[in-house]
Write a structure and sequence with these properties.
ATPase-coupled transmembrane transporter activity, 14 helices, membrane, cell membrane, cell inner membrane, five-stranded mixed beta sheet, six-stranded mixed beta sheet
């Protein structure tokens, strides 16, 4: 598998993986009706439940006999949400930002569980002359997408605590986007000064020495309370086949319990799966460090999601004040 070297390559990778691993693209929204489902997730530590469920074949334990389970890997939340809305995947893990943004734009989706909390770190490039957040005026920062979970966390903190905003809203910080796996190289080429980074890529940057921790997880806005990943499915699937959704969520819960009960094995699964997807092999030291910044849980707090959505509106990522009523359905985890 080729390395993720560009957005184009990543997009091709997702398509190829989907084509090789399933007929989900051909079946579209009818995949689950043909005893076949596709689950999606990202190659981030916050999504380890997806890696464990795939490696341990946990969905096959909860779904009806004969159900074929496929997996599709995503580079960002926008492509994931599009796949949910088109029915190319039936469920999976995504950041809360894309889920809320699409819901408030009219997408008929449900958050049926959480995946993890924590794991966002603000990293500064070595040699950039940045010793505190006050030094970011006039600097360039990178996030995975405009308005993604990590972007909102960073911009909320900077606006509320340091009165600094991005050039998107006529502020003093320049904002660019890029894939977390490439942030270390962006630091090395001095293309960016700061990155808002999901694990394990923050710990990888630390280990490689191209960047240093500027703001650690507990100090990032919503750093330890906001679900860093949520499990999403379509409202149509919830209404038409709640038993299918329950089976899917049961497998996700099993994966989460496995992570908490068998952390060392789960770490190795993450190392192997991330290498398989991205062709980047992370060391045990990097994974150990990343693990310390994350809690794995399937419980989801609606109030925390609403607070985060309100902040997205305040930062002008959303055009209208959000009302997340109906987004979360906890009936499958209660």
């Amino acid at each position: 598998m080729k390395k993720w070297l560009s957005i184009a390559v990543i997009a091709i990778l997702s398509v190829v993986l989907a084509a090789c691993g399933s007929d989900a693209g051909a079946n579209g929204g009818d995949g689950n009706k043909n005893n076949e489902i596709t689950i999606g997730y990202f190659p981030n530590i916050n999504h380890v439940a997806g890696m464990v469920a795939e490696t341990k074949d946990l969905y096959s334990e909860t779904l009806p006999d004969g159900t074929k389970v496929n997996y599709q890997y995503f580079p960002d939340g926008s492509s994931f949400m599009t796949a949910i809305e088109t029915g190319d995947i039936q469920g999976g893990l995504v950041g809360p930002g894309p889920a809320m943004n699409h819901f408030t734009s009219g997408a008929e989706i449900n958050v049926v569980a959480a995946g993890s909390t924590g794991g966002t770190v603000i990293m500064a490039r070595e040699g950039a002359g940045i010793n505190s957040p006050e030094d970011l005026k006039g600097k360039t920062f990178v996030s995975p997408r405009v308005g993604c979970t990590h972007d909102v966390q960073f911009e909320t903190l900077m606006k509320e605590e340091f009165s600094l905003t991005s050039d998107r809203i006529n502020g003093e910080m320049k904002h660019v986007t890029g894939k977390p796996a490439t942030y270390s190289s962006l630091f090395e080429t001095q293309n960016v000064d700061v990155a808002t980074v999901p694990e394990p890529w923050a710990s990888s940057i630390e280990a490689e020495g191209s960047g240093k921790v500027l703001i650690d997880t507990p100090e990032v806005a919503f750093g330890e309370t906001l679900p860093a990943a949520v499990f999403v499915t379509s409202q149509e699937l919830v209404e038409e086949d709640p038993e299918m959704v329950q089976n899917i969520v049961d497998a996700h819960k099993k994966a989460t319990d496995f992570i908490n009960e068998n952390p060392e094995e789960a770490k190795q699964i993450a190392i192997d799966k991330i290498k398989d997807i991205t062709d980047q092999e992370l060391s045990k030291e990097v994974i150990d460090r990343a693990w310390e910044r994350i809690d794995f849980t399937y419980d989801v707090n609606e109030e925390h999601l609403q607070e985060f959505a309100d902040s997205s509106y305040d930062l002008e990522f959303l055009k209208e004040k959000p009302d997340l009523t109906g987004l979360v359905d906890k009936s499958f985890i209660d």
